[in-house]
């Protein structure tokens, strides 16, 4: 099983535990904490894997355009 699938399962499990703990008449704080921890851990590891999959030399600029330098004209002062 890929790491991405495991992360998705952890995220869904955390969300289900959190929703289940909120649906009951008496809210169980420990179940809420467990749900939040599972959810945040899954999101953290998933985002860490997504960032690690990007190529190292990837840039958003596909082609650099060389611009001609702008000539500076001397300022004219009216005296």
Describe the structure in brief.
By secondary structure, the chain is mainly alpha-helical. It has helices at 3-23, 29-52. Helix 1 packs antiparallel against helix 2.
Oligomer type: single chain
Low-pLDDT ranges: none
Basic shape: elongated
* Estimated structural class: mainly alpha
Order of helices and strands: HH
Largest sheet: none
The percentage helix is 55-70%
Defining key terms:
79 residues
Provide a descriptive summary of the structure in words.
The chain has 79 residues and is an all-alpha fold. It is 57% helix and 0% strand. It contains two helices and no strands. It has helices at residues 3-23, 29-52. The protein is elongated, with a radius of gyration of 27 Å.
Topology:
Blueprint: H1 3-23, H2 29-52
């Amino acid at each position: 099983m890929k790491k991405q699938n495991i992360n998705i399962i952890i995220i869904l499990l955390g969300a289900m535990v959190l929703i289940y703990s909120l649906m009951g008449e008496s809210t169980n704080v420990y179940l809420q904490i467990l749900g939040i921890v599972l959810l945040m851990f899954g999101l953290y590891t998933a985002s860490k894997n997504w960032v690690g999959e990007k190529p190292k030399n990837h840039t958003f600029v596909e082609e650099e355009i060389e611009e001609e330098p702008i000539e500076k004209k001397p300022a004219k002062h009216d005296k």
